[in-house]
Amino acid sequence: MRKKIIAGNWKMYKTFSEAVDLVKKIIPLVKDSAADVIVCPNYVCLSEVAKLLPGTNVALGAQDLYWEKEGAFTGKVSGPMLKSVGVEFVIIGHSEQRSYFHETNETVNKKVKAALENGLKPIVCVGEVLAERESGKTEQVVRNHVEGAFAGISEQDLRKCVIAYEPVWAIGTGKTASPEQAQEVHAFIRGLLSRMYNKAVAQEIRIQYGGSMKPENAKDLLSQPDIDGGLIGGAALKADSFAGIVNFKG
Ligand code: PGA
To answer: Residue 235 CA: which ligand 1 atom is closest?
Structure first.
């Protein structure tokens, strides 16, 4: 049985005090969760949020990293820097990075390798835009993202990764993929991993769904056999709605 894993992607929201306030509210609400819980604040809030997490069941994630360890790369943050403040997970290849900040399969792959080399667990985002879905290219796009992200990654390292299937047309739009639509792609990803690696590891990897997940639709999505959690944007910005997803009853 794969344990569910719910991550809140706070994106570019929350000032320092707002982030501290949010995590303080989340902690007691999710303490009895059957799922793994992760919060991913912006870089400047990571170390302060980290101080509040020991002794809780909430883990810390970052929203991106740069693949070099250090150097003259103004504006970038490296794996060792994230690790040094207590980050455990890192989101890589989010569609907003792909569409606004020149993220490609190649940079995703470099970031996945850098994360793993530094003991961080990647949450690798894949997913099609609306035009690709409408022209029947969903599987092709998702295959390309998965193969690109994990090129040269060993089975042992794959085990440390989480995949987030995020249909881009469902992100922040209020339009959720139906549980059946999402399940179809999740099963496709698992089949693909089985062909790229083997069945055992494909069965082990957790695949989150992301795209307008909220307490009202979480149960239907999370009850699908291949949906192992959620990467939550908008609904993760309020403690009640995030906890409503984390504490879903299957
Ligand atoms: P959303 O975002 O829940 O606001 O759709 C999900 C994400 O982008 O990770």
So the answer is: 3
Segments in 39-178 forming alpha helices (H): 43-51, 79-84, 95-100, 105-117, 130-134, 138-149, 155-158
Q: List the beta bridge partners of residue 91.
A: 123
> pLDDT below 50 — which residues of the chain?
none
57 touches 88 (CB < 8 A): no
What is the tens place of the pLDDT at every residue in 13-39?
999 999 999 999 999 999 999 999 999
How many A from CA of 212 to the centre of ligand 1?
A: 6
Task: Record the pTM.
Answer: 0.97
Ligand 1 atom nearest to 170, measured from its CA: 5
Residue 62 · residue 50 · CB < 8 Å: no
Among candidates 130, 140, 127, which has minimal Cα distance to 207? 127
Give tens-digit pLDDT for 200-231: 999 999 999 999 999 999 999 999 999 999 99
Asked if 168 contacts 176 with a C-beta cutoff of 8 angstroms, the reply is no
Do 73 and 63 touch, CB atoms closer than 8 A?
A: no
pLDDT of residue 111: 98
AA letter at 36? D
Look at residue 174 in the predicted model and tell me its pLDDT.
85
Residue 197 contacts residue 153 (beta carbons within 8 Å): no
Of 140, 144, 137, residue with least CA distance to 105: 144
CB atoms within 10 A of CB 249: 8
Specify whether 94 is catalytic. yes
Distance CA 230, CA 33 (A): 14
Pocket, ligand 1, Cβ cutoff 6 A: 9, 166, 171-172, 210-213, 231-235
Q: What is the pLDDT of residue 156?
A: 98
